[in-house]
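Researcher: Please generate the 3D structure of the following complex. Treat every line as part of one assembly.
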Amino acid sequence: MADDQRDKSKQSVSRRAFLKGGALATGALSSTLIPDTAETQLPEAVEADTRRTLVEMKVNGTPYRKQVPNRTTLLQFLREDLKLTGAKMGCDRGQCGACTVIVNGRNVYSCTTLAVEATGAEVLTIEGLVTDDTLHPIQQAFIQHTGFQCGFCTPGQIMTTKAFLDRVPRPTQDQARRALSGNLCRCAAYKRILESVMTASRLMQA
Amino acid sequence: MQQQNTARSLKVVGTAGPPIDAIERVTGQAKYVGDLELPGMLVARVLRTRHAHARIVSIDTSRAEALPGVKAVITHKDAPKVPIWGNRTFVLNEQVRFAGEAVAAVAAVDQETAEKALRLIDVKYEVLKFVLDPEAALQPGAPQLFTDGNLEGEPRTLTRGDVERGLAESDRVIERVYHCPTMWSGGMEPRVAIAQWEGNRLTVWASTQAPCRVQTNLTAQFNLPDSQVRVIASYVGGGFGTKSAAHVDETITGLLARKARRPVKLQYSREEEILDSNTRFETRVYVRVGVKRDMTLHALDVKAYINQGAYHVRLGGLGNQATHIYNIPHVRTVQYRVHTNVPNTGPTRGVGDPQETFAIDSAMDEIANEMGWDPVAFRLKNVKRNGDPIARGGTGTEDGRLVTQVTDRCIEEGAARIGWARRNAAPGKVETGPIARGIGVGVTERGNGGGLAGSSVTVNLDGSVVVFYASADIGTHSRTTLSMIAAETIGVPLANVRAVAGDTEMAPYDGGSYGNRVLYSTGRAVDEAARDCLRQILATAAPMLKAAPGDLELTDGVVRVKSDASRALSLKEVMQRRGRSVVGSGAVTQSQAETNVERAAGAHFVEVEVDRETGKIRILRYISAHDVGQPINITVVENQIEGGTIQGLALTQAEEMRFDPRDGRCLNANFLDLKPPTMLDFDPRVIESIVVSNVGEQGPYGAKGLGENPCHPGMAAVANAVFNAVGIRLRRVPFTRADVLRALAEQRQVPSRTA
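Model: Done. Output below.
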């Protein structure tokens, strides 16, 4: 594994550079375990790619224009540049769903979407769901059923629900389970999340 | 035992409803530590070793320090020689003992620079032999993690009666071994900390369950008084025990911030979280259990190997739960707590209770089936009932009596709900078709809370109330339940109360959010503080209403003369005329002897479907019956039961951390290969909770703790149900399809086997 990784990591195992470098083998993903002995020492990182691109997108209805490094993920752009911290970093690998936002009507993992990919897009985050000081029916339903415990995954659960119900307004419970299965809830408030989704569907019809 | 405001019926306690901070949690407004940013804040990254066991010969950080944008680099040379866990482990160590252990940390202007700097640190190691298995680690010649050996302390031993005699007297004895590997049990939010120094004063925002424990460690590491260290954990993205003690990240962040003279944030990646948090410890439990022909348990002999990993964040082990659940005249348990080169372990939901329940309640089921007894009847025959003797200390001596114990009722109500009589009378009997159904039971219990608890409650000039407590609300909704207690005790609507959680500077010392303790123990402190407020309010109002304080009552935010309701003042009016806030304080110390006699029981029943062709185990129905004492908020109770039940089921499925035997590295430190259950893995609709009606004696309003218990019985209940379905015994978790198929194949080779 070490040799294999050494070659691949010449492009730098830094995660941002990794995204720039395209899909590598899983070995390079364990960038937190940077080799640290003489025999396994990785070559030093190549200079980070400093190329920047102008990103233009509407987030929650507000237009933004900003030059960002190409490697910037949508999650980083939202959290660090726009200070919209509702979307959370749970794994940074597209494996948990805490970072889910809606891009042009589709729920996406913003941690595995580059900001440049969202250029020209309409992005909706949890912060954009409240209109005129009124909670969205999905938020009301999540409160009604307490569809959460710690709340860390909740923005992602709600955004997935939004994209799903916009697409499938009257789902069956099994359709809802499938739609939400890309969003982990470690507290496992799943029974209540499912109830919240079904109630939200009814509230949105009303 | 406790004097409650019994003059009126409960108005707030016992109701259902969403938590008081629900809006923050569904709008993204709740700020977790990772969401916070301070002016001038630096980003930290940690260099981690790939070696399972090595000694650092040299670390050269000069090239990293020279990199523009790097503001501080630390190694073990910078770490205080103050133990963080146990008495021989530092925050950064010269000898590294698991693959993933921190060896250096960098603070830089951005993540890119920090990660680049890590790669410029040259570490030379003397690589040492490693050991991963706790039994192997005790063999002569095994690699030694510590100079005084791999065994942590003396084996933890409990004896009652004479176990060898008891086994000899038994009519039937079985001997089995049950194995739970190292399992990851963390939350959705990876560890994160921010440290800021102002002069000689340190503030740390941490993702922790126990701000006061973090504070205690930081004061030791930095040699500061409590007053100079503030720890804040406002919103925490789940803990499950993995954040129940001080960890290295808070100190590392503090060291970097001090060196860089700027605030520093250290955010773990998911991989780091899995490797360097604390995991559920591996247990290998050897059980001998003996019964008499009259269905009584006669002897239990337990020998357990607890794999503490490289470091014990807190010392773990089995809670000798079996001796609290069942009456057994002859008992011996011996626990070897062993250090190996797997990552840190520590308490995770239930500490050792899920592992112990798996072993004990599987063994109970095995012997009942061998004897041809109904497993529920066998348990009811032997289970401890209210008033039965119980050990108040950690020894085998039963010097106390159980109060408010309802294990029997949990079993009876659960059995009735699932239809226990429907179970297979002859487990494993070949049926038509590949699908077989079975029903299983698992019984558990745990003590409640204890230790030091504190709270202060303020009544503002407008009559609104704020509850301050230093433990974190990690998703157990303690902000809500503690506010409900204050609202009930003072006599105001819940809408007038809010709670400030997890700030060591705002509230007195409070142990933390772990061990079924916040509601039970902190809740008592809140109740005491609220009663202190009520006393002051009534004393203030008495001259205003020309009555004695004892003739007044405060209900729904109005102070009234009990005998003449027309003489009344709103709390707001009383407070405004008083002209100064009311501050009440509460502090409670509960000894183990006190809390050990009042315990919270639970019984789980599960109906499964086993596919003999694919090995798939499907949960058809799951009943979780729990004693919670007086429920404070029924919604919170059910949410805890449902979530905890799925976490217990998760242990049957997929939470094993796997290690490469060649290099000791974890093979699955990510959410693809170590996948917590999704909504599809277990159908959440099949989980039904039963809140067994009961009122405790010591908790506020008779409440009992609940957080841990629902996670305990899943492994045993499923294993017992699988046996009832197809007659195979699964004695190691997780229960993979391959395990099921293998056991079925073995069963076919031994057709006469009945158990």
